[in-house]
Amino acid sequence: MMIVSADVQQMRSTPVELLPLKIRRYFYALDTDDFREIRLRAGGAVCVCSGSGKRYISKYGKLTESVKGAVTVSPNDIEEAVDILTLSSLYSAQDEIKNGFITARGGHRVGLCGRMTSGGDFVTDITGLNYRFAREVIGAADMAAEAVFNNGNIKSTLIVSSPGCGKTTFLRDLIRQISDKGVNVSVVDERGEIGAVHNGMPAFDLGANTDIFDMCGKTEGMKLMIRSMSPQVVAVDEIGDEEDISAIRAAARSGVSVFATIHASDWRKDIGKELTACFKCVISLSDRHGPGTVEELVYV
Amino acid sequence: MYKAAGALMIIAAFSFVGYSFCRALGRRCSSLEEFRKLFSLLRSEISLKLTPLEKAFAAIGSQYGNSCFILCADKLPELGAQEALINALKSTASEYMLRGEDIELLSAAAVGLGKCDLKNQLKHLDYAVSLIDNSIVRAKKEREEKSRLFMNGAVLSGVMLTLMLL
Known about the structure:
heterodimer; A: 300 residues; alpha/beta; Beta-Lactamase; Rossmann fold; 2 domains; seven-stranded antiparallel β-sheet; seven-stranded mixed β-sheet; 29% strand; B: 166 residues; 6 helices
């Protein structure tokens, strides 16, 4: 029997609990298991993206294909939603807001748009929110784990897919499986999505031998982790910058394997050889049979 | 004998009223000083740790036994920072001997709380603390001016009433 404390239960809350009250009540009768995103746009209809496509919430609390008669979002709703997401403390999330998102409890990332201040260091008058459901899928990386971890030899692995195909979920499970095999894994969780740490406790199971550096820049975090936690594997989400590549190279030079994800539809065309050369294994994902479908596993 | 006892009781009662007024003036000063300290601590919590308001109010409130901050932390998720603080101030005003003007002044600290970025939040709290500073100066001056007046006035009133009744 697995015992989950109230705190952990709260940490694993769904994004529906983070919606403004007026909108939340329309979701009470809905089954949200299949939901991937909820989009709120000031003046627009409440939109739900699920495995079966894009739909709207009707005033009767049902999913509908038509925008007509759908529940609309007011600027006040957006303001209330931001208040809930930031725990009435906008300043506490200002670094995230500056980068266009807020990571809420449960590891759900809420993308946002509005008006960037003249200094470019804050977003005001927020007009749109996109709640992305973070999910833990135990066993998502079953097939890959064996290929990545072979007789104590861990291959640096790059997970590639378009947005919304389950990269982070896949990476999370890969970390858990490798960590449970006794490998020291250090996670640099720049957006707080991998571990969803809340009050110092990760909401997702990342294995028995995982250390998490939360809300820290990837480049800096990787250096710090290698220096201080002596990991065998460093895991990061959504790489792409030149700086990230040089940090991954530095990790490789230190004898540390790297698990990373990157956005790309076709890794052979979209990712430079310079980056792929840093990895020994590339896993390409799609959502052909649902998010996390492994299309390709290639040793580079 | 009865007359003497009655006279003493009247004088004691009036003195007690005077003493209560004096105590209220003193308590008001110490409350304002306490709130000044708590808002400074809140500023530090925000500036050093970016602690969310609910957690910051709860931590500071329980550390210093301030029921206003504790109540604010309790109500914050439901009402939002601004409303929760104003409500808490109003609910605990009698406990801290705060007057309407003090509530208004402390409420100024609540306006915009949690609604802006760090730089502006700190500026706002600094402004609130400076307002409280001014209020403390005024409250202390009032205490000096009026506490002796209340005390002496009350005793004299008691004596006068006693003489009139005799």
